[in-house]
Queue: 3 jobs
Job 1
Amino acid sequence: MSNGPLPSQLCLLPDLALRKEGDKVRFLGCVTYYSSVSGILTLQYRHPAQGSCHVVALVDVTLVLRTLKSDQVRIGEWVNVIGYVTAVSSLPARKGSRGNEALQVRAQTQVHIRALLIWSSGPLDTQRYNESLDALKSRCSITASSSTSKDVR
Protein backbone atom coordinates (compact mmCIF):
# COMPACT_ATOMS: atom_id res chain seq x y z
CA MET A 1 0.00 0.00 0.00
CA SER A 2 1.43 3.33 -1.07
CA ASN A 3 0.78 6.67 0.55
CA GLY A 4 2.10 8.64 -2.44
CA PRO A 5 0.17 9.99 -5.41
CA LEU A 6 -0.93 7.70 -8.22
CA PRO A 7 1.41 7.54 -11.22
CA SER A 8 0.33 9.16 -14.47
CA GLN A 9 -0.32 7.09 -17.59
CA LEU A 10 1.73 8.13 -20.65
CA CYS A 11 -0.45 8.42 -23.75
CA LEU A 12 -0.76 10.19 -27.08
CA LEU A 13 -3.06 13.20 -27.03
CA PRO A 14 -5.54 11.51 -29.45
CA ASP A 15 -5.79 8.59 -26.98
CA LEU A 16 -7.04 10.97 -24.26
CA ALA A 17 -10.52 10.47 -25.77
CA LEU A 18 -10.39 6.88 -24.46
CA ARG A 19 -9.64 7.93 -20.89
CA LYS A 20 -12.16 8.26 -18.08
CA GLU A 21 -12.85 11.19 -15.83
CA GLY A 22 -10.40 11.10 -12.91
CA ASP A 23 -7.59 9.34 -14.82
CA LYS A 24 -4.14 10.84 -14.25
CA VAL A 25 -2.37 11.24 -17.59
CA ARG A 26 0.87 12.48 -19.11
CA PHE A 27 0.86 13.63 -22.74
CA LEU A 28 2.50 15.90 -25.29
CA GLY A 29 0.68 18.55 -27.30
CA CYS A 30 1.21 21.60 -29.47
CA VAL A 31 -0.20 24.91 -28.22
CA THR A 32 -2.86 26.22 -30.61
CA TYR A 33 -4.53 28.78 -28.33
CA TYR A 34 -4.28 30.24 -24.84
CA SER A 35 -6.91 32.27 -22.99
CA SER A 36 -5.41 34.24 -20.13
CA VAL A 37 -8.96 35.16 -19.08
CA SER A 38 -10.16 31.57 -18.57
CA GLY A 39 -6.75 29.99 -17.90
CA ILE A 40 -7.35 27.39 -20.61
CA LEU A 41 -4.52 26.19 -22.83
CA THR A 42 -5.66 24.45 -26.04
CA LEU A 43 -3.39 21.66 -27.25
CA GLN A 44 -3.58 19.50 -30.36
CA TYR A 45 -1.54 16.67 -31.82
CA ARG A 46 -1.88 15.03 -35.21
CA HIS A 47 -0.92 11.36 -35.06
CA PRO A 48 -0.64 9.61 -38.47
CA ALA A 49 -2.98 6.80 -37.34
CA GLN A 50 -5.64 9.24 -36.16
CA GLY A 51 -8.90 8.76 -38.02
CA SER A 52 -11.50 11.32 -38.98
CA CYS A 53 -12.15 12.33 -35.37
CA HIS A 54 -10.03 15.19 -34.09
CA VAL A 55 -9.04 15.33 -30.40
CA VAL A 56 -8.35 18.61 -28.63
CA ALA A 57 -7.05 18.92 -25.06
CA LEU A 58 -8.44 21.89 -23.13
CA VAL A 59 -5.97 22.23 -20.27
CA ASP A 60 -6.95 24.22 -17.17
CA VAL A 61 -3.68 25.80 -16.01
CA THR A 62 -4.98 27.66 -12.94
CA LEU A 63 -3.10 25.36 -10.52
CA VAL A 64 0.23 26.03 -12.28
CA LEU A 65 -0.15 29.74 -13.11
CA ARG A 66 2.66 30.79 -10.75
CA THR A 67 5.19 28.56 -12.51
CA LEU A 68 3.84 28.92 -16.07
CA LYS A 69 6.31 30.62 -18.42
CA SER A 70 5.38 32.68 -21.47
CA ASP A 71 7.07 30.23 -23.87
CA GLN A 72 4.82 27.42 -22.54
CA VAL A 73 1.69 29.18 -23.81
CA ARG A 74 3.13 30.43 -27.11
CA ILE A 75 1.31 29.21 -30.24
CA GLY A 76 3.30 26.38 -31.84
CA GLU A 77 5.18 25.46 -28.65
CA TRP A 78 5.31 21.74 -27.75
CA VAL A 79 4.60 21.07 -24.08
CA ASN A 80 4.33 18.04 -21.79
CA VAL A 81 1.41 17.94 -19.37
CA ILE A 82 0.66 15.84 -16.31
CA GLY A 83 -2.87 16.21 -15.02
CA TYR A 84 -6.30 14.73 -14.39
CA VAL A 85 -9.04 14.18 -16.95
CA THR A 86 -12.02 16.21 -15.75
CA ALA A 87 -14.41 15.67 -18.70
CA VAL A 88 -14.62 14.22 -22.21
CA SER A 89 -17.14 15.60 -24.69
CA SER A 90 -17.78 14.97 -28.38
CA LEU A 91 -18.88 17.47 -30.99
CA PRO A 92 -20.45 15.94 -34.13
CA ALA A 93 -19.29 16.73 -37.66
CA ARG A 94 -21.16 19.63 -39.20
CA LYS A 95 -21.31 21.76 -42.29
CA GLY A 96 -20.30 25.38 -42.17
CA SER A 97 -19.26 28.17 -44.48
CA ARG A 98 -16.64 30.84 -44.82
CA GLY A 99 -17.84 33.56 -47.16
CA ASN A 100 -19.07 31.80 -50.31
CA GLU A 101 -17.08 28.66 -49.51
CA ALA A 102 -18.83 25.58 -48.06
CA LEU A 103 -16.83 23.80 -45.36
CA GLN A 104 -17.11 20.37 -43.80
CA VAL A 105 -16.10 20.57 -40.14
CA ARG A 106 -15.09 17.14 -38.88
CA ALA A 107 -16.13 15.56 -35.60
CA GLN A 108 -14.14 16.68 -32.59
CA THR A 109 -13.59 15.27 -29.13
CA GLN A 110 -12.67 17.72 -26.40
CA VAL A 111 -10.84 16.35 -23.38
CA HIS A 112 -10.69 18.66 -20.36
CA ILE A 113 -7.57 18.33 -18.21
CA ARG A 114 -6.68 19.93 -14.86
CA ALA A 115 -2.91 20.44 -15.13
CA LEU A 116 -0.62 19.57 -12.22
CA LEU A 117 2.62 20.14 -14.12
CA ILE A 118 3.58 21.63 -17.50
CA TRP A 119 7.02 21.85 -19.08
CA SER A 120 8.36 22.65 -22.54
CA SER A 121 9.49 19.70 -24.61
CA GLY A 122 12.30 21.51 -26.38
CA PRO A 123 13.25 20.41 -29.92
CA LEU A 124 11.05 17.52 -30.97
CA ASP A 125 11.07 14.91 -33.73
CA THR A 126 7.35 14.04 -33.79
CA GLN A 127 7.85 11.03 -36.09
CA ARG A 128 10.35 9.48 -33.70
CA TYR A 129 8.08 10.29 -30.74
CA ASN A 130 5.15 8.54 -32.48
CA GLU A 131 7.27 5.48 -33.21
CA SER A 132 8.58 5.28 -29.65
CA LEU A 133 5.15 5.62 -28.06
CA ASP A 134 3.55 3.16 -30.51
CA ALA A 135 6.28 0.63 -29.68
CA LEU A 136 5.71 1.18 -25.96
CA LYS A 137 1.94 0.74 -26.40
CA SER A 138 2.37 -2.51 -28.32
CA ARG A 139 4.80 -3.89 -25.70
CA CYS A 140 2.42 -2.97 -22.89
CA SER A 141 -0.60 -4.52 -24.63
CA ILE A 142 1.34 -7.73 -25.31
CA THR A 143 2.41 -7.88 -21.65
CA ALA A 144 -1.12 -7.16 -20.45
CA SER A 145 -2.74 -9.73 -22.74
CA SER A 146 -0.22 -12.46 -21.89
CA SER A 147 -0.59 -11.90 -18.16
CA THR A 148 -4.40 -12.01 -18.35
CA SER A 149 -4.48 -15.11 -20.55
CA LYS A 150 -2.40 -17.33 -18.25
CA ASP A 151 -3.99 -20.67 -17.45
CA VAL A 152 -4.95 -20.81 -13.79
CA ARG A 153 -5.14 -24.34 -12.36
Note: The longest strand covers residues 78-91.
Job 2
Amino acid sequence: MLRGLFHNGPFYTTLALTRIPHRWSVSQQRVFSLSAPAHDKPLPPRLKISDADLTVYYLKGTGPGGQKINKTNSAVQLIHKPTGIVVKSQATRSRSQNEKIAKQLLADRVEDLEKGDQSRTAIKAERAKKKKASKLKKTRKKYRDLESKEGEHDEGDEHSEEDHTLQSEDTVTQPSPETKGR
Protein backbone atom coordinates (compact mmCIF):
# COMPACT_ATOMS: atom_id res chain seq x y z
CA MET A 1 0.00 0.00 0.00
CA LEU A 2 1.31 3.44 -0.92
CA ARG A 3 0.37 6.47 1.18
CA GLY A 4 1.01 10.18 0.75
CA LEU A 5 0.20 13.10 3.05
CA PHE A 6 -0.85 16.41 1.52
CA HIS A 7 -1.86 19.64 3.21
CA ASN A 8 -5.43 20.48 2.33
CA GLY A 9 -6.87 23.48 4.18
CA PRO A 10 -7.01 23.37 7.96
CA PHE A 11 -6.91 19.56 8.00
CA TYR A 12 -4.55 17.10 6.44
CA THR A 13 -5.85 14.83 3.69
CA THR A 14 -4.38 11.40 3.18
CA LEU A 15 -4.45 9.90 -0.28
CA ALA A 16 -4.19 6.14 -0.05
CA LEU A 17 -3.38 3.99 -3.06
CA THR A 18 -4.42 0.44 -2.25
CA ARG A 19 -3.87 -2.70 -4.31
CA ILE A 20 -7.03 -4.70 -4.75
CA PRO A 21 -6.76 -7.90 -6.82
CA HIS A 22 -6.77 -7.06 -10.55
CA ARG A 23 -7.16 -3.31 -10.08
CA TRP A 24 -5.87 -0.23 -8.23
CA SER A 25 -8.12 2.10 -6.29
CA VAL A 26 -7.52 5.57 -4.93
CA SER A 27 -9.41 6.71 -1.85
CA GLN A 28 -9.36 10.01 -0.01
CA GLN A 29 -9.49 10.08 3.80
CA ARG A 30 -9.65 12.97 6.25
CA VAL A 31 -7.29 12.92 9.20
CA PHE A 32 -8.57 14.69 12.31
CA SER A 33 -6.72 15.65 15.44
CA LEU A 34 -8.03 16.29 18.93
CA SER A 35 -5.20 18.73 19.67
CA ALA A 36 -5.47 22.48 19.03
CA PRO A 37 -5.10 23.55 15.39
CA ALA A 38 -1.56 24.52 14.41
CA HIS A 39 -2.62 27.97 13.20
CA ASP A 40 -3.79 29.05 16.69
CA LYS A 41 -1.23 30.86 18.79
CA PRO A 42 -0.25 28.93 21.91
CA LEU A 43 -1.56 30.21 25.21
CA PRO A 44 0.86 32.21 27.35
CA PRO A 45 2.50 30.23 30.16
CA ARG A 46 0.76 30.07 33.54
CA LEU A 47 1.77 32.66 36.07
CA LYS A 48 4.09 31.25 38.76
CA ILE A 49 3.27 32.35 42.29
CA SER A 50 5.96 31.94 44.93
CA ASP A 51 5.05 30.14 48.15
CA ALA A 52 6.29 33.15 50.14
CA ASP A 53 3.37 35.20 48.76
CA LEU A 54 0.81 32.65 49.96
CA THR A 55 -0.91 31.92 53.23
CA VAL A 56 -2.22 28.34 53.28
CA TYR A 57 -5.03 27.09 55.51
CA TYR A 58 -6.34 23.52 55.63
CA LEU A 59 -10.02 23.46 56.49
CA LYS A 60 -12.72 20.90 57.09
CA GLY A 61 -14.90 20.42 54.05
CA THR A 62 -18.55 21.40 53.80
CA GLY A 63 -21.51 20.24 51.76
CA PRO A 64 -22.20 16.79 50.33
CA GLY A 65 -19.71 14.01 50.93
CA GLY A 66 -20.81 12.67 54.26
CA GLN A 67 -19.05 12.41 57.58
CA LYS A 68 -15.58 11.87 56.06
CA ILE A 69 -15.48 15.27 54.38
CA ASN A 70 -16.75 16.97 57.54
CA LYS A 71 -14.08 15.36 59.76
CA THR A 72 -10.89 15.74 57.71
CA ASN A 73 -8.94 18.89 56.90
CA SER A 74 -8.67 18.22 53.18
CA ALA A 75 -10.10 21.51 51.88
CA VAL A 76 -7.46 24.15 51.06
CA GLN A 77 -7.78 27.93 51.34
CA LEU A 78 -5.06 30.12 49.81
CA ILE A 79 -4.65 33.83 50.41
CA HIS A 80 -2.40 35.82 48.06
CA LYS A 81 -0.73 38.38 50.33
CA PRO A 82 0.08 41.11 47.73
CA THR A 83 -3.44 41.23 46.23
CA GLY A 84 -5.61 39.81 49.02
CA ILE A 85 -7.30 37.31 46.69
CA VAL A 86 -8.77 34.30 48.55
CA VAL A 87 -9.33 30.93 46.83
CA LYS A 88 -10.79 27.76 48.35
CA SER A 89 -10.79 24.26 46.86
CA GLN A 90 -12.37 21.05 48.09
CA ALA A 91 -12.81 19.34 44.71
CA THR A 92 -11.21 16.06 45.81
CA ARG A 93 -10.57 14.12 49.02
CA SER A 94 -6.82 14.60 48.63
CA ARG A 95 -5.24 17.59 50.35
CA SER A 96 -2.33 17.75 47.85
CA GLN A 97 -4.65 17.68 44.82
CA ASN A 98 -6.86 20.37 46.36
CA GLU A 99 -3.78 22.51 46.98
CA LYS A 100 -2.66 22.09 43.37
CA ILE A 101 -6.14 23.02 42.08
CA ALA A 102 -6.30 26.04 44.41
CA LYS A 103 -2.88 27.26 43.19
CA GLN A 104 -4.04 27.04 39.56
CA LEU A 105 -7.24 28.96 40.37
CA LEU A 106 -5.26 31.59 42.26
CA ALA A 107 -2.73 31.94 39.42
CA ASP A 108 -5.60 32.46 36.94
CA ARG A 109 -7.24 35.11 39.14
CA VAL A 110 -3.98 37.01 39.72
CA GLU A 111 -3.18 36.86 36.01
CA ASP A 112 -6.66 38.21 35.17
CA LEU A 113 -6.04 41.08 37.57
CA GLU A 114 -2.57 41.88 36.19
CA LYS A 115 -2.92 41.24 32.44
CA GLY A 116 -6.64 41.79 31.81
CA ASP A 117 -7.45 40.96 28.17
CA GLN A 118 -4.06 39.30 27.60
CA SER A 119 -4.57 36.64 30.30
CA ARG A 120 -5.04 32.93 29.57
CA THR A 121 -8.68 32.91 30.65
CA ALA A 122 -9.51 35.97 28.53
CA ILE A 123 -7.82 34.41 25.49
CA LYS A 124 -9.68 31.11 26.05
CA ALA A 125 -12.98 32.96 26.40
CA GLU A 126 -12.34 34.91 23.18
CA ARG A 127 -11.51 31.72 21.28
CA ALA A 128 -14.65 30.03 22.59
CA LYS A 129 -16.72 33.07 21.60
CA LYS A 130 -15.32 33.04 18.05
CA LYS A 131 -15.86 29.30 17.74
CA LYS A 132 -19.46 29.59 18.91
CA ALA A 133 -20.14 32.49 16.52
CA SER A 134 -18.68 30.48 13.64
CA LYS A 135 -20.81 27.47 14.54
CA LEU A 136 -23.98 29.59 14.71
CA LYS A 137 -23.15 31.21 11.37
CA LYS A 138 -22.67 27.79 9.79
CA THR A 139 -25.96 26.53 11.27
CA ARG A 140 -27.89 29.56 10.00
CA LYS A 141 -26.41 29.14 6.52
CA LYS A 142 -27.35 25.46 6.49
CA TYR A 143 -30.99 26.10 7.34
CA ARG A 144 -31.19 29.13 5.04
CA ASP A 145 -29.96 26.94 2.17
CA LEU A 146 -32.46 24.20 3.08
CA GLU A 147 -35.33 26.71 3.15
CA SER A 148 -34.37 28.12 -0.23
CA LYS A 149 -34.24 24.60 -1.71
CA GLU A 150 -37.65 23.76 -0.21
CA GLY A 151 -39.03 27.01 -1.62
CA GLU A 152 -37.87 26.01 -5.10
CA HIS A 153 -39.48 22.58 -4.80
CA ASP A 154 -42.73 24.01 -3.39
CA GLU A 155 -43.06 26.47 -6.28
CA GLY A 156 -42.64 23.64 -8.78
CA ASP A 157 -45.21 21.50 -6.95
CA GLU A 158 -47.79 24.31 -6.90
CA HIS A 159 -47.64 24.70 -10.68
CA SER A 160 -48.00 20.98 -11.27
CA GLU A 161 -51.02 20.78 -8.91
CA GLU A 162 -52.72 23.68 -10.69
CA ASP A 163 -52.07 22.06 -14.06
CA HIS A 164 -53.46 18.77 -12.75
CA THR A 165 -56.67 20.38 -11.46
CA LEU A 166 -57.16 22.20 -14.74
CA GLN A 167 -56.67 18.99 -16.66
CA SER A 168 -59.14 17.15 -14.46
CA GLU A 169 -61.74 19.90 -14.97
CA ASP A 170 -61.25 19.70 -18.73
CA THR A 171 -61.76 15.97 -18.80
CA VAL A 172 -65.11 15.98 -16.99
CA THR A 173 -67.57 14.30 -19.29
CA GLN A 174 -71.21 15.14 -19.61
CA PRO A 175 -73.67 12.28 -19.50
CA SER A 176 -74.76 11.28 -22.97
CA PRO A 177 -78.42 11.65 -23.93
CA GLU A 178 -78.70 7.88 -24.20
CA THR A 179 -77.77 7.39 -20.51
CA LYS A 180 -80.07 10.19 -19.31
CA GLY A 181 -83.15 8.27 -20.21
CA ARG A 182 -82.35 5.20 -18.23
Note: Confidence is low (pLDDT under 50) at residues 1-10.
Job 3
Amino acid sequence: PGVTAGKAAEMEVVAVPSLPKQSHLYTAADEVINSLLDLQLEKWGLPPFADCKS
Protein backbone atom coordinates (compact mmCIF):
# COMPACT_ATOMS: atom_id res chain seq x y z
CA PRO A 1 0.00 0.00 0.00
CA GLY A 2 0.91 3.66 -0.29
CA VAL A 3 1.68 4.06 3.41
CA THR A 4 4.34 1.36 3.24
CA ALA A 5 5.87 2.84 0.08
CA GLY A 6 5.94 6.35 1.52
CA LYS A 7 7.58 5.24 4.75
CA ALA A 8 10.11 3.10 2.82
CA ALA A 9 11.03 6.27 0.92
CA GLU A 10 11.50 8.01 4.31
CA MET A 11 8.60 10.37 3.63
CA GLU A 12 5.98 11.69 6.02
CA VAL A 13 2.66 10.00 5.25
CA VAL A 14 -0.93 11.16 5.70
CA ALA A 15 -3.45 8.37 5.09
CA VAL A 16 -7.09 8.84 4.07
CA PRO A 17 -8.57 5.35 4.43
CA SER A 18 -11.53 4.41 2.27
CA LEU A 19 -12.28 1.42 4.51
CA PRO A 20 -12.17 2.44 8.18
CA LYS A 21 -12.42 -1.18 9.33
CA GLN A 22 -8.94 -1.83 7.91
CA SER A 23 -7.24 0.67 10.20
CA HIS A 24 -4.40 -1.78 10.88
CA LEU A 25 -3.11 -0.97 7.37
CA TYR A 26 -2.51 2.65 8.35
CA THR A 27 -0.74 2.38 11.69
CA ALA A 28 2.62 3.39 10.16
CA ALA A 29 1.17 6.66 8.80
CA ASP A 30 2.22 9.87 10.51
CA GLU A 31 -1.41 11.00 10.48
CA VAL A 32 -4.72 9.35 9.54
CA ILE A 33 -7.63 11.59 8.54
CA ASN A 34 -11.20 10.82 7.46
CA SER A 35 -11.34 13.26 4.55
CA LEU A 36 -8.97 15.45 2.57
CA LEU A 37 -11.06 18.34 3.89
CA ASP A 38 -9.56 17.53 7.31
CA LEU A 39 -6.00 18.03 6.04
CA GLN A 40 -4.26 20.93 7.78
CA LEU A 41 -1.46 21.91 5.42
CA GLU A 42 0.00 24.34 7.94
CA LYS A 43 0.79 21.39 10.20
CA TRP A 44 3.12 20.10 7.46
CA GLY A 45 4.81 23.45 6.76
CA LEU A 46 2.71 24.23 3.68
CA PRO A 47 0.50 27.26 2.94
CA PRO A 48 -3.20 26.85 3.79
CA PHE A 49 -5.85 26.08 1.19
CA ALA A 50 -7.38 29.16 -0.40
CA ASP A 51 -11.12 29.33 0.23
CA CYS A 52 -12.91 28.66 -3.06
CA LYS A 53 -15.98 30.64 -1.89
CA SER A 54 -14.50 34.10 -2.51
Note: The longest helix spans residues 2-8.
